[in-house]
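mind reviewing this stuff:

——
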Amino acid sequence: MSPIRIGTARRILPILGLSLLAMTACDSSTEPAGDATIRVQLTDAPSDMLDSARVWISKVYLQGGAEGDDEPGRVYLFEAQDGDEARSFDLLRLRDGVVADLAEATVEPRAYAQLRLVVDSSRIWLAEGFEMEDGATTASLRIPSGSSSGIKVQLERPLDAESEATELIVVDFDVDEAFTFQNVGPTGVIRQVRFSPVLREWGRGTEGSDR
């Protein structure tokens, strides 16, 4: 899935609004009447120690349980089935206003308390001047919780999916916080790299509602 350049950070929300308007106009004839649409995108910021950081995401889902909601179950926006490959993204290519489409689905109109991403694994390539103790410049990383219950996106407020409206949310996969480098020597030798993803809402836009 190719990254999409949509402008600088200061201009992204107005541009997202125009994008949603066009998308809604094109898809309204095929979507079930009354359903809401949730679209999720990824973005990131540069890193001084990494040249590339690729992640594999196998599930994206909403969790109910917002205030006043008595349906706490999962609602999948994307789920890799048996034999399907997880969606892969190089986070270091998602910067300076570049985003990538991650998931999109129609859902029941209601409030959702959480958005979670199931990250199966990650592979990093170190920037020039850094290497692991064994001389390697790349490493594969896993996180136990990332491949089971998923990683919770820190939302500013619940996702309120309104009937016949499209809610677009951009998730920031913070590389500098996700990858922790331990015992970096003066010659650039790294003893260990830990992968603890930090996901935050970076922007949100709604199209097609009366709000």
User: Anything to note?
Assistant: The chain is about 10% helix and 50% strand. The chain has a mean pLDDT of 80. The first helix runs from residue 12 to 27.
